[in-house]
């Protein structure tokens, strides 16, 4: 119900804002045309954004591209499951996850799927994280007593996933380097801190709702151990330049993916299973999952498109800036806020907003650095909601959306504070 209300509000607000602009602002009489049939690459389009018709095509194309990725990783997951690799991974993380996800049976394969998803997210491997995450949702749905209502484990998993704990924001560093920033990697530590704070905030909020005691020795030990490992990596990475970080990230993330592939195949051969048959069986599920999420993705992307093309974001940003100016506060952070506001809706749009901020204010400006931290410090919340809940036909998301958005807000506030702390 919450998702339905938010989706409806997006559409209603966007059309009302566009209607006001069409009637009362000169030169905006064609706004309805561009909202419906506009194309971002059309030179005559003043908005430079896709309308809802083009957005529908984009949504379907995105799902088509997902088919191959989902087929590959779900096929490999099928091999790992038959070879017992997922059960082994579940036993390793069981002591921690059994406390954080008390409703999941001991040794359930969903634990292995979730740790694969979190690991891929940590390394910035979006293409791998999505299939692992969808497989985790599918596994959690098997033990969900109410199939159309989000279960406690599903909410905990998605809120942690959406917090976007990421070790190295490679894409942000690369874009800053391409924009000739004096130090492209200077946002690395703030990004890591923000994602860590957002993840902890999400865990605490969901734990409070689900009455989970996070002060248990096992949970504290795992969190401290993870923090220690991240701290060691930070110490090493901060000694590298921008090129060194990109090279290290490529070796670490892509090398680990290839290592996982190798271990899965070797495990399948050792267990004497038909690895290719297992792969094909799993890959079929990838195709079915990609098709299943098309309606959810189309609906969400169309609503987001209307918000963007109607100029609603401009109205919100202008209102925020005027409010803080009225209070006499420093308003430099407002210039970086468009990235934060659009990030939960669209990763691509937020990336474009970050580049636009750099081009407008310069790559070494306060606004550009803040925009980079926003971009590297969270996931696309509404995309996650549409795709992951849609893949298992969840209709009642309970408090998941509110928790995710509140965790995003914690991340935004933390990012602003750190930006002032690091960059003045």
From TrEMBL:
One of its GO terms (cellular component) is plasma membrane. Residues 64-175, 290-394 form the Nucleoside transporter/FeoB GTPase Gate domain. The keyword Transmembrane helix applies. InterPro entries: Gate_dom, SpmA_SpmB, SpmB. The chain crosses the membrane at residues 6-25, 56-80, 155-175, 187-208, 214-236, 248-270, 399-423. Keywords: Membrane, Transmembrane, Transmembrane helix. Pfam families: Gate. This is Spore maturation protein. The lineage of its organism: Bacteria, Pseudomonadati, Bacteroidota, Sphingobacteriia, Sphingobacteriales.
